Amino acid sequence: MAMSKQRGFPRGEGPWPWLTAGSVAISLLMLGALLLLLAVRGLGHFWPAPVTLVELQDGSRFAGMAVKEAPLPGGGGEERLYHTANRDLEGSPWTWVEVATIEAERHPDDLVVLERQRWGAFHGRLMALRGGDDGVEGQRKVGREDALVEGEAAWQSLVARLAELEALRNELARLRDDTILPLASRLADGENATLAAELARAEARLRELQMTMESGEVLLESVDGTRLWQPIEGIVRAQRPNAMSVPDKLAAWGQGVWRFLAEGPRAANSAGGVWPAIFGTVLMVLLMSVLVAPFGVLAAIYLNEVAHQGRMTRLVRIAVRNLAGVPSIVYGVFGLGVFVYGIGGSLDEWFFADTLPSPTFGTGGLLWASLTLALLTLPVVIVATEEGLARIPDHQREGALALGATRLEMLTRVVLPMATPAMLTGMILAVARAAGEVAPLMLVGVAKLAPQVPVDGNFPFLHLERKFMHLGYHIYDTAFHGSDVQAALPLAYATALLLVLVILGLNLTAIFLRHHLRSRHGRLPRH
Amino acid sequence: MRDAFPPSRYRQRLRQGVDRLATALITAGGIGVIVAVLGIGVFLAVEVVPLFWASGVAGTVNIDALWLPQTYAGLDTPQFRWQPAAAMPDETPRYSMAPLAWGTLKAALWALVIAVPLALGAAIHSAMYMPRRLRSRLKPTLELMEALPGVVIGFIAGLVLAPWVERHLAGAFTLVLVMIPGLFAAGMLRARLPRPWRARLTLGWAGLWLMPWLLLLGVAAFELAPWLEARWFDDDLRGWLATRFGLDYASRNALIVGLAMGIAVMPSIYALAEDALSGVPSSLAEGAEALGATRWQALWRVVLPAASPGVLSAVMIGAGRAVGETMIVLMASGNTALMTLSPLEGMRSLAASIAIELPEAAPGGTHYRLLLMAALLLFVFTFLVNTLAEVVRTRLRRRYRRLGGA
Amino acid sequence: MSDLMPPAMAPSGTILAFKREASCLEIEGLCLAYGDKTALRDVTLRVPRHRVTAFIGPSGCGKSTLLRALNRLHDLNEDVVRQGRIRLEGSDIHGPEMDVAQLRRRVGMVFQAPNPFPMSIYDNVAFGLRLQGGLRKRQLDDAVEEALTAAALWEEVKDRLRASAWTLSGGQQQRLVIARTLAVGPEVLLLDEPASALDPISTLKIEELIRNLKASLTLVLVTHNMQQAARVSDYTAFLQQGELVEYGPTDSLFTNPRLARTENYITGRMA
């Protein structure tokens, strides 16, 4: 410490404050890195990456996207992982190559990337198309299976066919949901000749649509020369990323994001979208809010306004506060033991005895998950509401009482309106906490795959006993239980990004509320 | 004043009745809700008790069997084993809670090793050195970090961090090594900068401008790593660890879990510790500084002793969170029920075991009840720790009020 | 303390002998304790109708506690133990026939700090009336205007009745609170240091208002400001350590106190 003030650290101060500053910097860096990683990987997945045609020194060729590089296990160079797709031809969609053995890399414009319902993606060339549109808009001849289109024309008609397929799928869904299902349920209620005829007509149309969709296939060739026929119906999306301009890619990116948000998962959760998980999360959180809000506020009012403020109340208050620190998994255990096996089991015995032993309410489901999370977030709401109530000066209450108001009138007309921002803040924090909890859900009703969302057109419309999908669990499942983790990873990133955005958004709203939204009458007057 | 609008007697009675009814409802509802929430502990205890009755479910479970090493057929020495599902048809399941409890504590301990220095450092810096404007931004930012769901942190830790560290073991090691001298160097270099630069790069804002410096350190560490590995570790850190210390490196190990969980619990420790530190009446630190103490001396001699109960309670609450965190351990630990000291091997925690095994365990069976006992342990532990922390914090608040009032 | 009269004897010698018919509130042997802390000891006095009665005394002497006992505000606190009787116009305010809400409507209260509700000026004044219900919009409008006029606030706020009450100045807020209380038509108005949080001009306005109001109601004022008590009250009660020390016409109490304790306090010779 003999250094002069000019050159070294101030006397008695030492270098230690720099460590404290460093811990702030490290924390911020970690937070930033985490968010950046999620954003880049999550959003980058939807950007159409160029396909590289790789030729190795031994003469073999493949087409794929470079995923990552790593040093060779024995040292001396790098190896590179390519996503080469074509699982039906190659067995594995991934290829590791030693970087040194690469002879040439090219990016030909005519390489296509097809996303398929089965076997994952295909990388290669489109050779021909048959049974598609024969070029004349809207007219289709019988025996068109024989029409064979080749080269650039094949690509054009494939794109047209895919757009058409999309329209057909929509029409099919509409026909099924709006015509056939209602007709069928009306028929089930009472026999009716005209209805039956109508239904038969609709079903015929349905079959016709399905036939149209099923027709047509394309001839594909991988870069090493293997050929296969692929039904057009099984193609979800076709791209030629090397030929795409930036606006094209931007449009494709937007479309990709939209599909991710709006579609259901495919291929054991390793492809497709997360719509059912979004829906399940939101629905579960909504139900939880409906359950937790009244009870949380009631308990807070009791603790703060009604209960005798003695030692007992102080103890209960501390206990409730501490329950916010009890691990969420413990709530999950309680939910499983009491709600699912206890209450659910009894409900099954009383009302659903005919379906036993397969359980209705005696297994995890939406209702039990919402209840469990409601219990989990109850302390959050109680504490926040109580803080809001405690901040209201007593002379406001006395003012109301002195005018002859009963306690209820004082509460509803003066106290609760003033505590509204605090209650809202508590609710939002509760929702943010609930949206991110996964562990208790694993015990009380989350499902790996539940394409059937718990709301539909059948009575009672909201199916509380059904299992549901959840964004958080979806991350866990795709990342740890998929058959092809490497393929599912980008989707897990995207899902994680979505979840984080939702939760950060909710928390920011709560912070904003806490700081800016006081009563419209402004701040509490200070005395 | 004349009695302008005498209220009707009927309405008066109605109001009274409604009020009584509402008060009764609020009381009933309030007590009901509180009982329901507090009932969690009761439920767990009631479900666990039959385990220890002589005529209990299995009768084979006693406290010794759960916590002491057991001799199993085919093994020479008594050991701890958690194998709830028998591997062979003729084997019996092995229930020893010890490895699970050990795994839980090990994970929590490493998490605290990471989180406590970071959180306390950040809390000290923002309470003592940071300008008010920056502090009012930093605090909510770090509190936002607290809201990051465990499943996301666990996902990053298990699938990105763990393989990355495994591949760049030497680099990661060098980074840790370089960090502290690097921060000292930053302070030293700054003191040698020309005055206008020094005026801009103040200690108060160092939390921000040190970030690019740290990135630079990171790059340097990775440049240095191969050289260091060749020089000290026979060109292969992993092999060196194995031959020299007999440490096996598991990709998902206690250090990875500790780092991930450290990030998860750091914000809550930070927030509480910062509250405790900045709650110390400023007259105290100012008094010390008026006597010629530096900021750092004032911190160590006056502020930290005054705030120490609050800081302690912050650490306790962090420990409570780390013990109960499920998803991070589940995803980043490998879930092997080992009982080793090595930070480079995996572990299985109570919470993770519950999450994995409970859905498959038959309700009412031994396995089911044992898992409920694990939950009860977690409940009791966190409840006690939090109560203690709360009591300490209440005392501290009272003390500040006295100090501030004096 | 040795030169003072023993506490038990202090009140009896100082009570003014109002006739029953002239007194609005009768307090008889009132004792009150918060848990084990005694706040009032055997207080007996009668408050005359249509007069201003002031309670004075050092901080913590129990004057506010006594005031709050008059409209049963202590009911909120379960730790409070009470003995003795308080009669409003002859009927026991703790009697089974007496409804608290009804009592508080008849005995209004204004607090130390202005406490308008977070609502518009109009809604504040209409608050008590709306609780009773059964009023038409027109009647409500008239009652609000009448109350605001009586509280000398109408001219200042008549153009912004819908504005938030929290936008008013402190003095205006306090007059609004008085108007709010007047609107329900009380017989007694309790004022707990109503001007202590206000500036001198607002204080004068409030004092003038108090003098004007005694034509229509009975006022009880708690104040730590002896000049204020001397300026506005007709009768003054001096309390110390929970006991009523001396009670009499303001003029004679201030100019010619009977007890040494009272004199010491009035002349400021007491801590």
Q: What's this model, at a glance?
A:
The complex is a heterotrimer of chains A (527), B (406) and C (271). Chain B has 406 residues and is mostly helical.
Give an overview in words:
- The complex is a heterotrimer of chains A (527), B (406) and C (271).
- Chain A has helices spanning 16-44, 87-90, 151-189, 193-214, 246-262, 275-306, 311-323, 328-351, 366-391, 394-402, 407-436, 439-444, 471-481, 485-516, and strands spanning 52-56, 61-71, 78-83, 94-98, 102-106, 111-116, 121-130, 148-150, 217-221, 227-231, 235-239, 265-266, 271-272.
- Chain A has 527 residues and is of the alpha+beta class.
- Chain A folds into two domains: 52-262, no CATH class; 275-521, MetI-like (MetI-like fold).
- Chain A is globular and about 90 Å long.
- The relative contact order of chain A is 0.09.
- Chain B is mostly helical and 406 residues long.
- Chain B folds into three domains: 7-49; 61-96, no CATH class; 98-167 and 249-403, Orthogonal Bundle (MetI-like fold).
- Chain B has 15 helices and no strands.
- Chain B has helices at residues 9-48, 63-67, 98-129, 132-146, 150-167, 169-192, 195-200, 206-232, 237-245, 254-279, 282-290, 295-324, 327-332, 350-357, 366-405.
- The radius of gyration of chain B is 28 Å and the shape is flat.
- Chain C has a single domain (20-267), classed as 3-Layer(aba) Sandwich (Rossmann fold).
- Chain C is 36% helix and 25% strand.
- Chain C is built from eleven helices and ten strands.
- Chain C has a six-stranded mixed beta sheet, with helices on both faces.
- Mean pLDDT of chain C is 82; it is low at 1-14.
- Chains in contact: A-B, A-C, B-C.
- The interface between B and C is medium-sized, with 11 and 21 residues.
